[in-house]
Design goal:
Layout: H1 5-10, E1 17-21, H2 25-33, E2 38-41, H3 45-48, H4 60-73, E3 78-82, H5 91-104, E4 108-110, H6 116-124, E5 129-134, H7 150-166, E6 170-174, H8 178-187, E7 192-195, E8 203-206, H9 208-212, H10 228-244
Parallel strand pairs: 1-2, 1-8, 2-3, 3-4, 4-5, 5-6, 6-7, 7-8
Helix pairs in contact: 2-4, 4-5, 5-6, 6-7, 7-8
């Protein structure tokens, strides 16, 4: 049974919330069968599936396509859809684009940074919003850990509180010190979802390509459970050898 944002808020402090990204129907189907309650269709698709060097080249059309594919594969899972770069430039633009992602199959919408006026406007118009602070890839100049200095830590903590105050029901904390993530988690009344933020958040999210080991580069805070790229290579090489040697049946 698909859980709603209120149910996820009720999981605050009670259990770890597992979340994975997905971009395709077949992967989403497997994730749902495994019992993962939340799928994030992130704009990370641009880097891990589309070959972009950053997430800023991802468009609304890309997000609609992938959210639709994931929804067809995971009909009973809560799906969070990412608003891509500049899709939340102002409240009215953000609402229009959020409605497009909801129509494509998302249950809630995630956006990066302390865009408090946008979050408030979306919530006022019935959109469930997930915030995101710490490392924000759409605007970051690099992928270094954020919050290592006192001033940075204060800024991130204040952003998280402000995002909650604007009406978000959950917030992603990306690539920040685990002590900072733990402090923010204990302060907020909404769940925190960590990625590269240590073990003490209310939940964790992993990019599915990182977890599967698809690709040849992974962020330092990712975790691989397999090495699927090696398997793909071995299968393709064996197939090629069989065709060339007339042994393929």
């Amino acid at each position: 049974m698909k859980i709603c944002s209120k149910h996820l808020m009720g999981m605050k402090g009670k259990k770890q919330i597992p979340m994975l990204t997905a971009y395709t129907c077949s992967i989403a189907r497997s994730i749902e069968l495994a019992g993962v309650p939340v799928i994030l269709v992130g704009d990370t698709v641009g880097m891990v599936e589309m070959g972009f060097s950053n997430t800023r080249d991802v468009t609304m059309e890309h997000m609609e396509y992938h959210i639709g594919a994931v929804r067809r594969g995971a009909q009973n899972t809560h799906i969070i859809g990412d608003l891509p770069y500049l899709a939340d430039a102002d409240p009215c633009t953000a609402l229009n684009n959020a409605e497009r992602l909801l129509e494509a199959g998302a249950d809630s919408i995630k956006l990066e940074g302390p865009k408090l006026d946008v979050i408030k406007y979306l919530v006022e118009n019935g959109v469930s919003v997930v915030g995101h602070t710490g490392l924000t890839p759409q605007t970051a100049l690099n992928f270094k850990k954020v919050g290592g200095t006192e001033s940075e830590a204060i800024r991130v903590a204040e952003e998280a509180k402000a995002i909650q105050g604007a009406g978000a029901f959950m917030v992603v904390l990306e690539h920040i010190p685990s002590t900072l993530a733990q402090s923010i988690t204990s302060t907020l009344s909404i769940p925190t979802i960590g990625i590269g933020a240590g073990p003490n958040c209310d939940g964790q999210v992993l990019v599915i390509n990182d977890a599967l080991g698809i690709g040849d580069y992974w962020p330092p805070f990712s975790k691989q459970y397999s090495y699927v790229s090696k398997t793909v290579f071995e299968v393709a090489k064996t197939y090629c050898d069989e065709v060339e040697s007339f042994t393929f049946l």
